[in-house]
Fold this sequence. Notes:
Layout: H1 16-36, E1 42-46, E2 49-52, H2 53-61, H3 64-78, H4 82-105, H5 115-131, H6 136-152, H7 158-170, H8 188-191, H9 195-199, H10 210-234
Antiparallel strand pairs: 1-2
Amino acid sequence: MRKQKLIPDKYRFLSGSTIKLIAVLTMLIDHTAGYFVPGGYVLFSIGSHNFMLYSIMRMIGRIAFPLFAFLLVEGFLHTRSRIRYGASLLICAFISEIPWDLVHSGKLMSSGQNVFFTLTIGFLGMCAVEYLKDHPFFQLIALAALAIVSVFIKSDYSIRGFIFIILLYALREHEVLRILPSFILNNCIYTIAAFVPISFYNGKRGFIKGPVLKYAFYAFYPVHLLVFYFIRLVNGYY
């Protein structure tokens, strides 16, 4: 089946590394708003309509998860070792849980789990789809079980995030149709915007190469949460 493309190859200029930077930046904007920006702060007004800084930053932040999900699918398809790739996701999930709990509650206890658990469960879902492709019944059972796990552990984005990842993987050859899973997520109008940079992806890795930069990308998530925790602690948020 011929791959469906929105943008001709000659106009595709964004590497995987650039998309990673966009994902990290939009996530940082989103978390900054969520942890520090008051909801009532007016950035500017047009006529009688006020534009809130918090709302604008959170709208920008809706781009982040679809980009991370896309990068997960690309990583799954192109990694040299899926075992090592899956292990890296799971290790980062457990490491990130400490700063995730701290920044949300001020202690090592939180009602939900960080997004790396969602990504790990999505990775396992893709493994199930591929390795059980000749056994659709067991495929369905495995996906249902993983969906239940995402709800049970209260992973970030929960079952919606898991389903989004699986559909993004299933529709990877259809650039028009793969936008549709966005309607599963909250604030879907803004998550659709993530498919603008995705459409300009040229299939190249880019400048983030080698173990140092690779693991620095993973480390950014728990490190920035830990920094945010200490800022909130110093300023008496807990």
